[in-house]
Every structure is written in C-alpha cells, then in structure tokens.
Amino acid sequence: MTVQEYAEEMNFTVQDVLNKCKELGIKANSKDDLLDDDGIIMLDNTMNLMDTDEELSMEENDTLDEYVEDIMASSNVANSYKDERLSTEKVKKANKQENTSTNTNNKDFLKKKKQMYKNKEKLTSNNDHNVDDSVVLYKEAMTVQELADEMKVPGVELVKKLIGLGMMISLPQSIDFDTAEILVADYNKILKRAETQDISNFENFEIIDKEEDLVKRPPVITIMGHVDHGKTTLLDYIRNSHIAAGEAGGITQSIGAYQIDYNGEKLTFIDTPGHAAFTEMRARGASVTDIVIIIVSAEDGVMPQTKEAIDHAKAAGCPIVVAINKIDKPDANPDRIMQEMAMEGINPEEWGGEYPFVKISAKTGQGIPELMETLIAIAEVNDLKANPSRYATGTVIESRLDKSMGGVASILIQNGTLRIGDPIVVGTVHGRVRTMKSDLGKDIVEAGPSMPVEISGLSGNPGAGDRFMAFESEKEAREIAEKRAIEAKNQRNVTKTVSLDDLFASIQSGVKEINVVLKCDVRGSEEAVKNSLEKIDVEGVKIKVIRSGIGTITESDISLAQASNAIIIGFNVVPSNAIKDSAKQVGVELRLYTIIYKVVEEMEQAMKGMLDPEFEENILGNAEVRQLFKFSKVGTIAGSYVQDGVMKSNAQVRVIRDGVIIYDGKIGSLQREKDSVKEVKAGYECGITIEGYNDIKEGDIFQAYEMVEKKRV
After folding, report:
1. Using the 8-state DSSP alphabet, how is residue 80 labeled?
2. From 3.30.360.10, 2.102.10.10, 2.40.30.10, 3.40.350.10, which CATH number describes the 615-710 domain?
3. pLDDT per residue over 613-626, tens digit each?
4. How far apart are CA 426 and CA 411, in angstroms?
5. Residue 79: phi, psi to the nearest 5?
C-alpha cells in the first residue's frame, strides 16, 4: 500500500501521513512510497489517537454550541426561533448518537484491520505451479533436459528410458507431449500442458491445490423463475430482511449476492433479475452457480420465463431444485405444477425422477426449512471445497462507477482469500482493494471462498461475469491487466460459437455433441423435427436439443445459443433483420429450412465430419531387391526393380521376406541414376533406403503403401 492510498483510505492528507512517518522513523518520503505491514500497524495505532483527539474537540464544540443555544432560548430576541432551535437540538442529539455508533463501528473495523495486518500470513501465489508435486508441466518444444529439471530427476535417466522405448533422443533435443507423458507416468506423476497455467489467461488457468489445503465451502445458489413468482420474496424471507420493499414494483432490478447462516451452515444466494443475467455470466465463461432453484407459482403454473429458466439451468449442468411457491393461496395446485414441469423434462423425485420438488410459501415461511435442508444435502453430495490459503479468484456479479470511489464491483470469491490492500485484476482493469463491504454493508478486512463482497479501488468498470484474480504485487497485476486488454481488443471480433462448417475442427476430444436451439412454425413441426434430429445415429456423436419451441427466433434464443455454443435451427420461420444482425454480431449460426429431410441430411453430414477419421490402406506398388550397396554415411542402399505400381519417396513401406513382414517403416530416399526422385514407376530400376533400417537382403520385397482417409457411410 502506498502513502497516498493509506491517506485516502484513512481520510488523512498525504502530508499528515508523511509527517507521522518521519516522526515514527518509517521510511517514506513521497506519496508513491510503499508502506510495509509493520509501518501500517504503527500508523494505525498513532492515527487512531489523532481521531480520538478530534472526537474530543467535536464534543467540546457541541457543549459550547449547546451553551449558546441555552442563552438564545432564554433571550427575548430568540423567542420567535425557540421552537425551531429546540427541534434542531433534537436532530443534533440524534446525529450525535448516530456518529457515536458509527465511530464505534469504525474503531472495531480498524481494530480488525490492525489485527489482520499483525497476523497476516503469506497467501499462496496463484502463479505457483509446483503446489502439487505429482504434476509436471509440459511447455511447447520442451527438451529432455528441461523435462528432467521439471521432474527433478537426472537427465541421463530419461535418455535411458527413451532408448528402452526405441527412441534415440538426446538431452538437448525436444520431446513431444505423448512421449513425455509416458516418461512422466513411470514416476507416478501427471503431465499437463503449461498453456493451462498462463496466469494472464486466468479464465482457463488451472489452479492445483493439495488435498490437505482444501476445506468445505458454502454452496452458491441461484434463484430463477418467471416474473412475480416470488424469487426476491423467497430470498427476503430467508435473509429475514426486506430487500423487496425497495425494488420497483416488487420486481428485482439488479443482481444481488447474499450469504446466510442456516443452523450453522452457510449458503450463498444470487438473486438475478431473470435468466438473462445468469446466461450473460455463462457466456463470459463464468461457472458461478453450484445449485439452481427454479421457483414456480402454484397459482400461475409454468410460464414462458419458467421454461427459459429450465433451458438455461440444464445447459449450465447444475443440480436443479424446484420450489413450488404460493401454496398458501386458495387456488394453489401443486400437482398441476409437477405435471407441467414433468412435461418440460423436470421429473419429480417422488415420481421416480431425479429432481427434488419442495412446496413452500415465501410469504409465511411454510416449507422453507425443508428447502434449506434439501440444498444442504445436495451441497454435501457434491463435496464443495476450496483453498482459503491462496490469493483469491472469483467472478464479478455486478459493477458500477462511483464518482468518489471509482470502479466498484460486487464480486463472488470462489477460491482463496481476498484482503484489503491486495492487488487485483478484474477482467481487463486492475487496482488495489481499497474498501471491502459484506452483503450487509459492513466494512470487513478479508473474505473467504463463496463469500459475496463489494470492493472499490479499481481503475475501471468491469462487466458482469468477468473473472478476477488477486496477486502478490501491484506491478504484476498492472502488467497482466495490460496484456489482457490487448488480447481482448484483438479477439473482440473473433466468433467462438460452433457452426456446421467447422464442427469437426471445433470438437477435438471428449463426448462429441451438437447443441441445437430449435424454433418451428407449429407444434406438429416442432415434434417431427426434434424427433428426427434426436434419432440421428452417428457413432460417437449425438444431438442435444437444449431448447425447442414455436414462433420466430428471438434475442433470448441467441443469448442461450451463445452461452451454450449452440446452432439455431429455424423451420418454416423467418427471423427479422435485427435478429440476423444480432446473431451475426455474437457469432451464432442460424440455419433456416423448409424441408425436414434437408435438416436431417445436413446435420448427418456435419456429424460425420466430426467423427475421428477412418483410414484404409492403399497399396502403391512392389519392388524387388536385386543388389545391395553399403555406405558408411548413408547405410544400405537397395538396388531394386519396381514390379508393379509406383514407389514414392517418403511413403510407408513394408519389408517382406518369404511372405512374412519383418519391418514396417518409411522410405528414406529414392534414387534413379544418381538423382533423387519423388517416384519411380513399374518397369524401372532404382535405389531405395529405408529410414532407420539396414538389415536388408537380396530377394526382399518392398511394398509401398499410404493410409487414405475413408469417407463414412
């Protein structure tokens, strides 16, 4: 923390702080000089005394003011102002009591802050790749020696193992990932690519924690549902507060994150203004939620936004709990809600399904204990853990610009601990945590995993869903923020969603799956197209219709497709130009059809392109070895006669002796009358060398072949 930052945080002038530093013997001569922890503690102790002196002066002034008021009140001149002055006196006394309470809170905060600095343990850097000794990081074009250094074993030992594998690779030569993985496995270690450890790309940054450092963390729960079905009222009851009273029309207008304590178990809730904000965070790559509550009114039933909430929750892959609200109403029909939800693929547990349903009244509190117990049980099953002993990482819930404080962000800490004074990068902006407030608005000095807080001190205004990471030094944070800003600018117009033309290139490993958003003209068409798509049977690849419905394509469809990396298929529907432009802008592909078999045909072709290619052998030709020529530099050259087909340089080749394959390798060189050539056709003589093989005899047959990709049928 610099002198200027300390002065701003403590509401002192820079000169006051510098004077006090000089008096205490703290090395600080300018506003940009850094203060160490010991210096901050010394300043806190002495500056607090200055605060106390000022408070006493204020009390003396108040006493004098009251004395003057007494004189004025007894004076004939002041009689006309008597009532007004007495009223003012009451206000001043109330303000004085409020100030006393505030000062007490400030003293408590400063005491905790001082204690934090005094007991501050060094957190583990997120850039520390060697936290887990069982993991070895592979860098591009890594040499054998570099791999040995990373594994902390002698390089010669790895060379011997390579020789045992039939590979002549020396210490300064590079080694590919697959070969390195074999070597690493011999030492019971795991090889990972270093690209996943690029600290500037912390969205994809893989943090490796030791099991003994992990502790249980509270679950993060998002409440979603149709407007006025009781999202905020439910959270309001759970928190035992009245946040809904301040919302326009009782409808949530912004995202709030709150943490509650239920029977000793902490739970963190995110209250969204709808599925749009939830999807916005997912579209930015933020996996924030552990559990989703979909709240449905027992009076109104499943509504359009309820269906959209189901689509988004399913696409996120989170456990879902259904809360049937307003069961205290006379028109409540929970059984109808369960039937309607089952039609949307959310089958209740009591019907043999996988989704728990809890009947509640957010107004009276009926059923809410059962809901809490259900959430805690799901959290236990998922075994949610984090490491509080490292610098914090997490996600922005919302942000705003404050004239006096600059960038202010509501954030959710997902791993590690965030402390006042920590340098931090949020999205493409950076700063140092100047203030930190809990969800109740109280000043705090540090926050751990799954805790929502509001921080200030940022250089700009990050977006919802932006990731953040805290660092050891402000210099490192600034450099990383600048690098991220440049990368963001370069990638601003790069599309990330999948298209039919590049499906095979897009999905390289794991379960191959095409996400589809389907919109049709009528219900009959929707069922027919959906069934046809889901019946396509291509090995290893399947279609997942994450949303289907009737009507034209909307912004909500584009938002879901963007977040889920999906293709939008429209059948007999025509989107507006605005929708087409919106899809193009975010890189979502729209495919429009009027004939069902065309939909199926194109999807089948795309899915076949996604499959790992099949190869078949194509025999190029055969050559008979008739004479051998041995040279010390090039090895054995086989004078051969091409019997049929063609021999090509660099082709795969088998050495066949008495009808048995004795070697399978590659043609090293092909010569015709002392000239190197690319191919020699049947009926001609040539000289052939085999890469890495010299045990050739006259009468051997060289069979040249190539592997050709086979088109799937």
Report:
1. G
2. 2.40.30.10
3. 667 788 999 999 99
4. 10
5. -60, -40
Give the amino acid at 712: R
CB burial class (10 A; 0-12, 13-18, 19+) of residue 257? buried
3-state secondary structure 146-188: HHHHHHCCCHHHHHHHHHHCCCCCCCCCECCHHHHHHHHHCCC
Tokens of 34: 């850094």
Q: Which residues contact 618 (CB under 8 A, 6 or more apart)?
A: 705, 706, 707, 708
Range 686-702 average pLDDT: 93
Per-residue exposure over 547-558, b if at least 16 CB sit within 10 Å of its own CB, e if not: bbbbeebbebbb
* Contact (CB, 8 A) for 353 and 341: no
Provide the CATH topology of domain 500-610: Rossmann fold (3.40.50)
Closest CA to 692 of 661, 665, 671: 665
Gap between the Cα atoms of 480 and 475, Å rounded: 9
Question: CA 617 to CA 544: how far, in whole Å?
Answer: 35
The label of the residue with tokens 């790309």 reads 201
Q: How far apart are CA 124 and CA 131, in angstroms?
A: 9
Q: What is the largest CA-CA distance in the chain?
A: 136
Phi, psi of 687 (to 5 degrees): -105, 130
Gap between the Cα atoms of 530 and 526, Å rounded: 6
For the stretch 249-265, pLDDT in tens is 443 434 468 888 888 89
What secondary structure, in 3-state letters, does 11-68 show?
A: CCCHHHHHHHHHHHCCCCCCCCCECCHHHHHHHHHHHHHHHHHHHHHHHHHHHHHHHH
Is the distance from CB of 430 to CB of 423 less than 8 angstroms? yes
Contacts 24+ apart (CB under 8 A), 205-208: 205/126, 205/469, 207/126, 207/131, 207/387, 207/390, 207/393, 207/415, 208/129, 208/131, 208/132, 208/135
CATH classification (class only), 393-490: mainly beta
Radius of gyration, CA atoms only, the chain: 35
Q: What are 524-564's pLDDT values in tens digits?
A: 788 888 888 888 877 667 888 988 888 889 988 998 888 88
Decide the pairing of beta strands 660-672 and 652-657.
antiparallel
Euclidean distance between CA atoms 169 and 159, whole angstroms: 7
Specify whether the CB–CB gap between 296 and 266 falls below 8 A: no
For residues 295 and 382, what is the distance between their CA atoms, to the nearest angstrom?
22
- Domain 218-383 in CATH: superfamily? P-loop containing nucleotide triphosphate hydrolases (3.40.50.300)
The token duo for 597 is: 């078999």
From residue 526, give the alpha-carbon distance in Å to each of 217, 403, 517, 590.
43, 52, 11, 16
State the burial class of residue 606 (Cβ atoms within 10 Å of its Cβ: 0-12, 13-18, 19+): buried
> Distance between CA 223 and CA 257 in Å, rounded?
11
3-state secondary structure of 621: strand
CB 102 within 8 A of CB 110: no
Residue 658: the pLDDT is 84
Pairing mode, strands 566-571 and 590-593: parallel
Looking at every residue in the chain, the average pLDDT score rounds to 79
Which residue is it, tokens 């490192």?
476
Cβ-Cβ contacts under 8 Å for 264 (sequence gap 6 or more) = none
